[in-house]
Amino acid sequence: MEDEPHTILPDSNRVSVLLAAILLAYALAHLIEVPQVPLTFNILGIIIPIPFDINIATTLMASGLTAAGMDWLLRGHPRYEGGNTFQHWLLPALTTFVLGVPLYNLPMGPAWWLSFIFGGVLLFLIFVAEYIALDPEDLRYPAASAGLVALSYTLFLILCITLAFSVSRLILIALIVFFTAGMVVLRSLHLRTGKWEFSWAFGIGLILMQLSAALHYLPLKPIQYGLVLLAPLFSLTEFAQNIHEEYSIRRAGLEALVALAIIWIAAFLFRG
User: Fold this and answer.
1) Domain boundary residue among 93, 109, 139?
2) For residue 58, what are the domain limits?
3) Is residue 130 located within the same domain as residue 184?
4) What is the pTM of this model?
5) How many domains does the chain divide into?
6) Under 8 Å CB-to-CB from 267, ≥6 apart: which residues?
7) Closest CA to 90 of 173, 179, 18, 199
8) Over the stretch 172-218, which tens digit does the pLDDT of each residue have?
């Protein structure tokens, strides 16, 4: 009985309601047709038109709903002691945002329904893992933390593959990659170190944004494009983690270069 509080799961009714609300929003948005309204931004004299419609609005609102819902789930945790739960919102909200990209670009059909179902399963797993990660004394905390890190990299890969399939403008792709990479780095390092490494997140996000722009016009398959971007994200995040653990620069750099090389070799050997 003493260990019972350390192996708990979120309330199934709350999880069901939250998942249903998010998925219903995506389903209804795909059935409702609303004219697209272009939003124009002037950044340093560069006019950037960004299309805005109900799908984009739904993705943003669903991300906000997911963050609020994650907070709602955590406040029902028996070991919740008050305070901010912001760190547990990041990955669920990012997941909802990333899932919105293929659901926004795919036509209604088997591929859309497969993405829809996969998204629901992925969100469920992340809700459960974040709930467990609230309590470091939970027996499943190490597995939950490792799972969240792995899922964050998987989400980034899915996003990059989807962006490669889309016909979005280069500036829009670069901004999405910058934002997503920064969020992945921020959450991954916080899970491992317990600290907010904003400088690392900004720096790695900037590198990924520049690399995504350089790769935009190369004849890469979508999976190759995703793997080429995943490699520096993974290796640089591991480098930052090793530096935090006080590895020598040489050892940390060597491990990062090996990881980078392995993933890049896999990307360029891919023929699917």
Assistant:
1) 139
2) 1-139
3) no
4) 0.81
5) 2
6) 223, 224, 227, 228, 231
7) 179
8) 788 889 989 999 999 889 888 888 889 999 999 999 999 998 888 88
